[in-house]
């Protein structure tokens, strides 16, 4: 499977997902696509378990892609730029303190909460112990909210106060930065062999 074929297939799946959401789920576009994507991912997991050889070509091609460069240096920039186009900085300038606390301390707390829950659930769900620092990395990945999704929800909601919209929209814009910093710090600890420096007993 070539890169072009994969790109075309992803475009077709995105179009079908949008239609399915518009026709049946009727959720805000960003949320609907996320839900449909999660369902498709679960279906793929089941299919891979049943017919693993069918996905070998796609696996080898995806394995050759450096997702660190693709996500951090390519996709994330476009995502934040698109989100910034919808953000009114004159509205958020009066709430910078709240935005900073939520996008920094909030992401740190969320990282440890999600990481700890994953660490506690791993022996039950996958019957295998997972290093706590790997769970924290998962927490850092899932902690930041998607600004495009936030703007899509607020666009369809008229009952949310403007103050809340401004704070959450600003937080959604800036929390990615802190999440990336936390992710890279944790990743550097793993690479350097110092993952034991994070002791889960302190937080559990």
From TrEMBL:
Report TM segments.
7-24, 30-48, 69-89, 95-120, 132-154, 174-191
Membrane topology per the entry is: Multi-pass membrane protein
Keywords carried by this UniProt record: Antiport, Cell membrane, Ion transport, Membrane, Sodium, Sodium transport, Transmembrane, Transmembrane helix, Transport
Q: Name one GO molecular function term.
A: potassium:proton antiporter activity
- A biological process (GO) annotation for this entry? regulation of intracellular pH
Residues covered by the Cation/H+ exchanger transmembrane domain: 12-199
Entry's Gene Ontology cellular component terms: plasma membrane
Localization, UniProt: Cell membrane
Domain of life, source organism: Bacteria
Taking the first listed entry, what is the main subcellular location of this protein, grouped into a coarse class? Answer: membrane
Q: Does Membrane count among this protein's keywords?
A: yes
State the family it belongs to.
Belongs to the monovalent cation:proton antiporter 1 (CPA1) transporter (TC 2.A.36) family.
PANTHER family reported in the protein's UniProt record: NA(+)_H(+) ANTIPORTER NHAS2, SODIUM/HYDROGEN EXCHANGER
Name recorded for this polypeptide: Cation/H+ exchanger transmembrane domain-containing protein
């Amino acid at each position: 499977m070539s890169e072009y074929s994969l790109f075309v297939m992803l475009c077709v799946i995105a179009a079908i997902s949008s239609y399915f959401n518009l026709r049946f789920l009727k959720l805000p576009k960003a949320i609907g696509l996320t839900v449909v994507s999660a369902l498709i991912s679960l279906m793929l997991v089941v299919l891979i378990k049943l017919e693993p050889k069918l996905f070998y070509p796609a696996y080898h091609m995806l394995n050759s892609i450096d997702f660190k460069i693709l996500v951090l240096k390519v996709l994330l920039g476009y995502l934040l730029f698109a989100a910034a186009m919808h953000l009114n900085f004159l509205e958020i300038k009066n709430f910078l303190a709240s935005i900073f606390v939520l996008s920094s301390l909030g992401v740190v707390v969320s990282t440890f909460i999600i990481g700890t829950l994953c660490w506690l659930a791993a022996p039950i769900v996958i019957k295998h112990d997972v290093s706590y620092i790997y769970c924290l990395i998962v927490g850092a990945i899932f902690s930041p909210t998607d600004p495009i999704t936030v703007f899509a929800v607020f666009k369809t909601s008229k009952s949310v106060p403007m103050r809340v919209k401004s704070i959450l929209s600003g937080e959604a814009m800036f929390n990615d930065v802190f999440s990336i910093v936390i992710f890279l710090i944790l990743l550097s600890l793993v690479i350097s062999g110092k993952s034991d420096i994070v002791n889960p007993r302190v937080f559990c």
